[in-house]
Amino acid sequence: MPEVRASSLEEVQNAVRAHPRLRPKGGGSKPALSTPKEGEVLLDLSGLRGILEYTPEEFVFTAYAGTPLMEIEAALRAHGQYLPFHPPLVGQGATLGGTVAAGLSGPMRERFGGLRDFILGVRFVDGEGRLVRGGGKVVKNAAGFPFHRLMVGSLGAFGVMVELSFKVFPYPRATRTLRTGYGTLEEALSALERLRGLPLDLLALDLIPPATLEIRLGGFPGSLEGRLRRLQELLGREGEVLLEDEAHWEGVRDLSFLEGSPIWAKVPSRLDLIPILEGLPLGPRRYMAGGELLYAGLEPEGLHALRRAGIPHLVLKGAEEALFPPPPEAFFRKVKQALDPRGRFPLG
Amino acid sequence: MGFLQELKALFPPGRLLTREAELAPYESDALTAYRRRPLAVVLPERKEEVVEAVRLCHRYGVPFVARGSGTSLSGGSLPVEGGLVLALNRMNRILRLDPKARIAVVEPGVVNLEVSRQAAPFGLYYAPDPSSQPVSTLGGNVAFNSGGAHCLKYGMTAGHVLALEVVTPQGEVVRLGGEGLEGAGPDLHGFFVGTEGLLGVALEITLRLLPKPEAYHTLLAAYGSLEAAGNAVSQVIRSGLLPGAMEIMDRLAIEAAEAAVKAGYPQAEALLIVELEGPKEEVAEEAKLLSEVIRESGALEVRIAQSEAERQAIWKGRKAAFSAVGRLSPDYLVQDGVVPRSRLAEALREIGRLSQAFGLRVANVFHAGDGNLHPLVLYDGKKPGELERAEALAGEILRLCVRLGGSLTGEHGIGVEKKGYMPEMFAPGDLEAMERVKEALDPQGLANRGKVLPEEVYA
Ligand SMILES: Cc1cc2nc3c(=O)[nH]c(=O)nc-3n(C[C@H](O)[C@H](O)[C@H](O)COP(=O)(O)OP(=O)(O)OC[C@H]3O[C@@H](n4cnc5c(N)ncnc54)[C@H](O)[C@@H]3O)c2cc1C
Ligand SMILES: Cc1cc2nc3c(=O)[nH]c(=O)nc-3n(C[C@H](O)[C@H](O)[C@H](O)COP(=O)(O)OP(=O)(O)OC[C@H]3O[C@@H](n4cnc5c(N)ncnc54)[C@H](O)[C@@H]3O)c2cc1C
């Protein structure tokens, strides 16, 4: 398969100008998205890496798009900070650009919001090889068209991201996890629904079918025990408390529960959708962020069932068409034409 | 039939305004230095009427401007000469409020504060809180990606909009986004937010609601210099705290606020307000750390609100600061540039120097947590040349913000007012990309023509 490597902005621009069809790849942790199709040249961005600016006091960093998240998280951790949207597949080598293009957030998105809430700016190379900047490097900015937000979930359709700026937050000083099982899905769902409406500032609130909730708290060591007790009282049950919960949640955000499934999919979910989804032949799965984000491991029949039911999703691993349904034509097509008139990039 | 005749067929008398006296109130927004006479104003009550009006404009090549409450401070809702104004205030219904899904689906003319009011019985609220929230509309908030005092922690409007129904300038109706927090595919609704009405008109907006914080801890600290207050902000951040809001006022702003609402503020060179919010146990712990940090920051006086009434008293002066400045000066210009937080002190020093050099007073009130400045340039429009001098000073402040690595605007948008400064922040290639997107969606350049994109690129 034809392949080019780009380790600098200029090399990205040259590659874009030289090849009629390109598929960018960061760490390759989401093969359904980064494996080239017929006629496409693979643009390997793993060399375009490194943190360009990081001022802990600003809660902001800027890095090359091919930087592995592991590297970014290590730098942030040294200053007690983190990416609050908790990007998945870090252990598998996910890069910043790939995470943005796929639009992925992990379990701790529950507390402060998803990827789309933390991206501040982008520099990307459009379909004509031109460099374009959107957004900025400060936590608040309303100037110009927000191209950085357009990149979220874009699957690389509008350009090759070169550089990205993000907002970060202080990492909670201590965490605890409460795991509690219910008799039926309905009971678990009703507890989930109740917790969503309360001002408990949960770091994570996950439903593991058939009927288990995992609830993560984070904060000051001095307040955590009290908050945990209140949570137990609210739920009217002791549950199982994980004191050392870090490794557990790292496994969750690396989607280790999907290992062994041929197809991995992200499904935007909702409380009212869960009973419907639970009626489909889906494999191992976990609903994150209060039930609004499902990662599921599928066999081909599970994928067909999702499509038959008309439920939007993104395939991260396995299968032919990654995105269902395609983006809404009237708006998407025109923006695409403006930035990628020759259709060099995916979703062409 | 001509354009106006067709409009008449769409809008009954009273909802199509064409007479001079009827048009006058729509000639400007809150930036009253700019005025333009539209051809007509329509008052749609249903989204189908907006769509039909946009299609007519498309067919006849008539430019149009969507307008919410007209509180834009950057001339964003200024009409186009000879164009149509779509005044959307009457589209003010909350179509659905679903506490279980934690969403509200609203028409664009719904006033920001109304959403929180309706959500309150369910313990929920709508987080973005521009200070214009009692009057500004969600359509306007979406167009400008508006924010308020709580942006650092909760982000701006873009993070709280889950879906949009939009009519494009060519009259096509599209749905962007969905009803949940997550999506699959490009974040097109996220992209629409902040494009200042150049890419179409929002017909319906789906908002995320959040549980109302359980407890607040509000602290007011007085400092001997603006710099000391600015440094305190950095110390708070370095300590690992994440306050809901951090606001600073300088001496001039304090004096104005005192004269206006008698908030009982200490007299000082600068005041810092820090507000923590969250679960009560957590806030109690954070408050201990905050006291330590503030003690070490050299505060001259510290007050902590002991009740909701005392909390409101602290905020009262801050909230009155802008209008109160009106007492110190017949006129003022307000900017809202952003600088990296660590450069706040430098920015304020330079603003002080510029103020001296231009011979005009500048009052400072700002969202210190996000480095979002609000310098108020005081001037007297009756004195020849003062407005021009004030504009020149404001322009220097904008350049300063960009030079320090910040932005031209944190929340008020570019509009007509700041479009001339866009090339200071963006390279020609960046602006061309914006222009290409605009052209692709709006080949005739009808939607909010003449805003955001600077002339030389847009021509
Ligand atoms: C006293 C005061 C305080 C303010 N405080 C803040 C603040 O704290 N934070 C902040 O961010 N702003 C603030 N503003 C600015 C202003 O209130 C906001 O920008 C607000 O979002 C504008 O809303 P509006 O309904 O008045 O919109 P308008 O002024 O009517 O319009 C603003 C822009 O939105 C476009 N627009 C309106 N409706 C639609 C629609 N349905 N679809 C597409 N485009 C549309 C218009 O064309 C225009 O470009 C303040 C203004 C005032 C006067
Ligand atoms: C040109 C102008 C003149 C005004 N004159 C008067 C007056 O004489 N008397 C009166 O009662 N009201 C006046 N108002 C309205 C007055 O500013 C608001 O009623 C009041 O300040 C509301 O602000 P807040 O408390 O919500 O703002 P705060 O909480 O103090 O504001 C914080 C945010 O407010 C924004 N902001 C608030 N007010 C303004 C403003 N005026 N201009 C720009 N940004 C603002 C900033 O964006 C900032 O983000 C005027 C408004 C404008 C635009």
Instruction: Supply Rg of chain B.
Output: 22 Å
As an assembly, this protein is: heterodimer
Helix content of chain B: 25-40%
Backbone shape of chain B: globular
Strand order of the largest sheet of chain B: 15-12-14-13-17-18-16
Distance between the termini of chain B: 31 Å
Task: Give me some keywords for this one.
heterodimer, A: about 350 residues, alpha+beta, five-stranded antiparallel beta sheet, 12 helices, about 30% helix, about 25% strand, globular, B: about 450 residues, seven-stranded antiparallel beta sheet, 16 helices, about 35% helix, binds flavin-adenine dinucleotide
Write the layout of secondary structure elements.
The complex is a heterodimer of chains A (348) and B (459).
Chain A: E1 3-5, H1 9-18, E2 22-25, H2 31-34, E3 41-44, E4 51-55, E5 60-64, H3 69-77, E6 81-82, H4 96-102, H5 109-112, E7 119-125, E8 131-135, H6 147-151, E9 160-167, E10 169-170, E11 174-181, H7 185-196, E12 204-208, E13 212-219, H8 221-235, E14 240-242, H9 246-253, E15 263-268, H10 274-278, E16 285-288, E17 293-298, H11 300-308, E18 313-317, E19 323-324, H12 329-339
Chain B: H1 3-10, E1 16-17, H2 20-23, E2 40-42, H3 47-60, E3 64-67, E4 84-87, E5 94-98, E6 103-106, H4 112-119, E7 124-125, H5 138-144, H6 151-154, E8 161-167, E9 173-177, H7 188-192, E10 201-208, E11 210-211, E12 215-223, H8 226-238, E13 245-250, H9 251-261, E14 270-278, H10 280-296, E15 301-304, H11 308-328, E16 331-334, H12 344-358, E17 362-367, E18 375-379, H13 386-403, H14 422-425, H15 428-441, H16 455-458
Parallel strand pairs in B: 2-4, 3-4
Antiparallel strand pairs in B: 1-2, 5-6, 6-10, 7-11, 8-9, 8-10, 12-14, 12-15, 13-14, 13-17, 16-18, 17-18
Helix pairs in contact in B: 1-3, 8-12, 9-11, 12-13
Describe the structure.
The complex is a heterodimer of chains A (about 350) and B (about 450). Helix content of chain A is about 30%, strand content about 25%. Chain A is of the alpha+beta class. Chain A is globular. With about 450 residues, chain B is of the alpha+beta class. Chain B is about 35% helix and about 20% strand. Chain B contains 16 helices and 18 strands. In chain B, the strands form four sheets. Chain B has a seven-stranded antiparallel beta sheet, sandwiched between helices. In chain B, helix 1 (about 5-10) packs antiparallel against helix 3. Chain B is globular, with a radius of gyration of 22 Å. The two termini of chain B are about 30 Å apart. The mean pLDDT of chain B is about 95. Chains A and B meet through strand 8, helix 6, strand 10, helix 8 and strand 15 of A and helix 6, strand 9, helix 7, helix 8 and helix 10 of B. The structure holds flavin-adenine dinucleotide (2 copies). One flavin-adenine dinucleotide binds near residues 66, 68, 136 and 139 of chain B.
